[in-house]
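Please, does this match?
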Amino acid sequence: MSITLNSGFKMPAIGLGVWRMEKDEIRDLILGSIKIGYRHFDCAADYQNEAEVGEALAEAVRTGLVKREELFITTKLWNSDHGHVIEACKDSLKKLQLDYLDLYLIHFPVATKHTGVGTTASALDDEGVLEIDTTITLETTWRAMEELVSMGLVRSIGISNYDIFLTRDCLAYSKVKPAVNQIETHPYFQRDSLVKFCQKHGICVTAHTPLGGAVANTEWFGSVSCLEDPVLKGLAEKYKRTVAQVVLRWGIQRNTVVIPKSSKVKRLEENFQVFDFSLADEDMALIKSIDQGQRTNQPAKFWGINLFA
């Protein structure tokens, strides 16, 4: 199952996110997931594991496990490289061992102090607050993203963590429209207005943290996991599925792309088994009723400033 982007290319409706994936686990997880059926992999320069992902993908293609044209590879421009878009993209391509990217995203709508292409340090000032570069506009960054398309380095370009206002602005100044807006969205943080705005204007929404981050985000950010919600547990019993499968199916039925992450093969298999059932309208409505407006991924913990305030 896939969604056709406004660029004309097809994006698989489920992918594997590689954030917080340990480098020594990546080869087996990537190869294992391809055997399961995954073709969509969501990467980022900031995850500091593009080289390891690239090795695994190259091995998969070299051994005939999959063809390059069957894969959909996303990576992202880090905040400190807004003034160095082309160099940063080429650096990611080299690490991923690819000739082109299927999708390249602006990771966050903020330019920060440049720390060197290939590095993703977040420069902080003496008070521990993110050093934001106020000389680079998002429009300037987008113009460079469009150039990547002209150069053939990237098939589709998009944005990430943009709200309605910034998305509207991007639509206004773009010559190549953003194909995707990747945002945090899950049953406890549904963001219906943003999702509907994007979809109305032909922008596909990719749900990062589609399961609410589960234990990892509880440990990092002190957030509450939706996977423990009694409503979702009840639906899992009704459909004889795991709670995660119900949540991912909900995301797909909202016409969003979901990119769950797991380092357990059993979970990888379960997460992919969401195409042989569907949630009834009343159950979609029931899930809508449990929205808490709760962001679980909050980089302010590291940056000393809440960019979403």
Remarks:
- Strands lie at 2-4, 10-12, 16-17, 40-42, 72-77, 101-106, 154-160, 180-184, 204-208, 257-258.
- Residues 23-36 form the longest helix (14 residues).
